[in-house]
Specification:
By secondary structure, the chain is α+β, with helices and mostly antiparallel strands. The protein is built from five helices and twelve strands. It has a five-stranded antiparallel β-sheet, covered by helices on one side. Strands 5-6-1-12 form a four-stranded mixed β-sheet, with helices on one face. It has a three-stranded antiparallel β-sheet with strand order 2-3-4. The longest helix has 21 residues. The two termini are 13 Å apart.
Length: 235
Amino acid sequence: MGEVSPDWGDLTVSDWMWLSPTEKEMLIGMRFPKRRREWLSGRWTAKQLLLRCSPRLAGKPLTEISIENHINGNPVVFVEGQILPGCLSLSHRENQAAAAYLTNEDVFVGIDLEWIEERHPAFLQDYFTEEEIEWVTAAPNREQPLRTTLIWSAKESALKSLRVGLAVDTRTVEVHPLEDEFPQGWRKVNFHSNLPEEGYQLHGWWQKRENFIITIVVNMPASHKPVFDIKEIHW
């Protein structure tokens, strides 16, 4: 399940009434206004999504939902001091935020939101595999920023679903988009990587929305039938 918020609106550093005590402490420790706005937007979007997806949270005030960081950097949801089962992933870029949540305890999700823009050739050399670079550079110049952003976003989502983030070489996950064209709607993307635990596989989707690319990746047991229903909630 995923959500993309249209804007962070009037969520300012002075509007803390919906934060948990721990979240307020986290916010106070942030020096830069831009970082604070993005963080607030991500937390607000995630909480709105959780309220709609988890029956356990029905009627709960936002202050009792605390989204904190695990030691490995992944977001963990606490409700009245207890960890909420499931997997939450967050992303924010250019005053937009996205969140994805799965209730399954043995399935992990990663979401990423990226602004389509040109990247220096050195960026591709540092973070992309040779096959990914070939796919990007084979496109007309006007399409290369989109392809670059798609590859990067899919890598970010995959590494989040693997619970390693950017602590590993991004080239250890190779992205294989299945479509050369870029139509509207969710499209499939495949991966080649030895990072998933034995018996697990990565499944991914991507979509272009205005000048954004959004990707969702699920890391799940290979024994599970890979059939998904992506339910979107727009706030």
